[in-house]
Amino acid sequence: MIPAIAVTGASGQIGGRVARRLAGAGISQRLLGRDPARLPDLPGAVKAPPASYGDARAMRAAVDGARTLFLVSAHESAGRVREHRTAVDAAVAAGVERIVYVSFLGAAPDATFTFARDHWHTEQHIRATGVPHTFLRDSFYQAAFPAMAGRDGVIRGPGGEGRVSAVAHEDVADAATAVLLAEAEGRGGHEGATYDLTGPRALSLAEIAAELSRAAGRPVVYVPETREEAYASRAVYDAEPWEVAGWVSSYEAVANGEAETVSDAVPRLTGRPATGFAEFLRENPGSYRHLLG
């Protein structure tokens, strides 16, 4: 039997997709989540006891018996890096021999996008363990951009004329599955690798708005904001300062050219072209339903 893969976030957008793909390939796996009742019922999969990343004892018990940890990053929070470190250390203590981590495009200690810095610190901690690893650095998700448009058909933010190579969840899941299967089946080739997972083109926010206009059949526009305007327009959400900084700096990273990288990693890993934004909209009309009426 192929050694089990522990899949975190198995009830979520990436972990759930990967879990279903691994099950279809006949791979044994342990599904992790804070609420086991939300985990999918899949052949060859065991639902691990409830575990959150910040609970070392629970994480160690949840990954017990797995040789590989597929680590989907935690929800954004002020203590996310600490949670990641705890989860990684618990997995290593439980005997995990390989970690595949879902990181972010352009992860760096001085990245403009504040959440990208979290990913860099997590990568550094994984490297320091000495455990073989692979990093999947996703671009911004394509599904996020319809959500950025309000019901008034306006995308607002300090993105300037920058471009973003947004990627589809399906492409990330297919790429991650390819990496996990290669290692599980003894084909290897991904140890120490870092893959930038992007769409096939980098689009400006104005071009993204134009694609949304075509899909929704109504005008959608991009209205640039200054940093001050961006903070002011988001004050109505009464969010924590770290969260607002993440929202605003995501646009600023686009403006600074930190999101425009286009990689061939998706087609190389999956054997098919990466999904373009227009194709994503055709396949996911529900993503822009709020713009239709």
Automatic annotation (TrEMBL):
Entry-linked SUPFAM superfamilies: NAD(P)-binding Rossmann-fold domains
Coiled coil stretches, renumbered: none
Residues of the NAD(P)-binding domain: 9-180
Record CDD domains: TMR_SDR_a
Source organism superkingdom: Bacteria
Protein name: SDR family oxidoreductase
